[in-house]
Write a structure and sequence with these properties.
The chain is an alpha/beta fold. It is built from 13 helices and 17 strands. Strand 1, helix 4 and strand 2 form a beta-alpha-beta unit.
Length: 411
């Protein structure tokens, strides 16, 4: 037991044996029967002056007798002894769902906490559920947890209920792309969330970096949360943007939070983002990309809850955010129109479609073959709280810029 415990940072060898005592009660219970357990515990608690008692494995007591009436009577006496002594007890055991619903120990317990391991394809997820907690209103549902060197780390499921409603924005933030600001009616409202959607390689990350660097130039710290590009790849993009961009990175006006898509946990991501925002007071945030979070969610409702909670939390802090999402490559014809056949102008902008949560929706797309020499177009599908120009405009990406045309084609 000590050999396993000393691997954790919470272990304190100095507490053994003076404050923590290990007692094997198996032999005594086997000799005296389960009926002798209450008296044995009463004597141990009195002898040690215990405040806490952990019995592992409590379920093993069922192996000592098949007489359920005797088990039930002994367990109620155990509860009486522990309560009278003012002891907090954890009864640990390997139980299945049917046993939780039927065995007597769950009736006498003041709280019932279930730990489980859920298999999802190649991934496993540890989850915790509080079935019962007398005298308190527990948060229902499954909560993920990890076993780390510091012990159990629990991530309560996302509800968004703890996020205060934020006041209506009063200021606008520029995007770093003047033509886009014009299309949005003056820029992004402070504290708003914008969904930027488009197929792979169309320029979503470049647009996001423009937004962050424009803020850094105005003294507005920004954070890039990346799941796809590594920090080295992101720094290369920033170097291509010029000296000022590298100065923003070195000066702390632009920070990068990289999390491997293979290790994503939605609650953990949101917790890390909020800690980063609180430590540096970031005014801008870009999340790249939503598809990785959707894959990590393992369930559609969890993904939506995560995005809702993140969006509300960012708004409450006054942080203006861009959420980058992948959409499918759409076939198009040279004769297609923006609202007609061939352009499929209203695609599903993200897997899981969370566009209704966003204050703004910006769509980037390819046109094959190119129209008048232009093969990429930007369209503002939605803005909340202001008018916008919904006419698609061509753009191109150079080594250091996202260049959006001032007018639509033909104007």
């Amino acid at each position: 037991m000590i050999r396993y415990l000393e691997r954790f940072t919470f272990f304190r060898e100095s507490l053994l044996p003076g404050s923590i005592h290990y007692q094997d009660i198996g032999q005594a219970v086997r000799e005296e029967g389960i009926e002798g357990l209450p008296l044995l515990l009463e004597e141990l608690v009195a002898e040690r002056g215990a405040s806490f008692v952990v019995i592992d494995s409590f379920k093993a007591l069922h192996d000592l007798t098949t007489d359920m009436a005797a088990v039930r009577s002994a367990l109620f006496d155990v509860g009486r002894v522990l309560t009278a002594a003012g002891v907090t007890a954890l009864l640990v055991g390997e139980y299945g769902p049917q046993e939780i619903a039927s065995l007597p120990e769950f009736a006498i317990a003041d709280g019932v906490i279930e730990l489980a391991n859920r298999a999802h394809g190649m991934r496993d997820e540890r989850v915790l559920r509080v079935h019962k907690l007398r005298g308190a209103a527990q948060l229902p549902g499954e909560h993920s947890f990890r076993i780390e060197r510091s012990g159990l780390r629990v991530f309560p499921r996302l509800t968004g209920a703890a996020v205060d409603a934020h006041a209506a924005p009063e200021a606008r933030l520029v995007s770093g792309i003047p033509s886009l600001d014009e299309m949005l009616g003056g820029g992004f409202w402070e504290g708003s969330t914008t969904l930027v959607s488009g197929p792979t390689g169309v320029g979503k990350t470049t647009l996001g970096l423009h937004f962050l660097l424009a803020g850094a130039a105005r003294g507005e710290p920004g954070v890039l949360v990346a799941f796809q590009e590594t920090p080295a790849q992101i720094r290369r993009l920033i170097r291509e943007a010029g000296h000022d961009a590298m100065a923003a990175l070195r000066g702390g006006m632009l920070r990068i939070l990289y999390i491997s898509p293979l290790e994503l946990d939605l609650v953990d991501v949101i917790e890390q983002v909020e800690q980063l925002l609180e430590s540096g007071g970031a005014r801008r945030l870009v999340l790249d990309a939503l598809g990785d979070m959707a894959e990590a969610s393992l369930a559609r409702d969890r993904f939506r809850a995560a995005i809702w909670t993140l969006q509300r939390s960012l708004g409450a802090k006054g942080t203006t955010s861009l959420l980058l999402g992948e959409s499918a490559l759409l076939p198009a014809s040279a004769t297609g129109t923006w609202r007609g056949e061939g352009m499929a102008a209203q695609p599903s902008v993200t897997a899981g479609d969370i566009s209704y949560m966003a204050d703004n929706v910006v769509l980037l797309r390819y046109l094959r073959p190119a129209r008048d020499g232009h093969d990429r177009f930007l369209e503002v599908l939605k803005t909340r709280g202001s008018t916008h120009d919904s006419t698609p405009r061509p753009y191109q990406i150079t080594a250091a810029a996202f260049e959006l045309a001032a007018t639509a084609l033909g104007d």
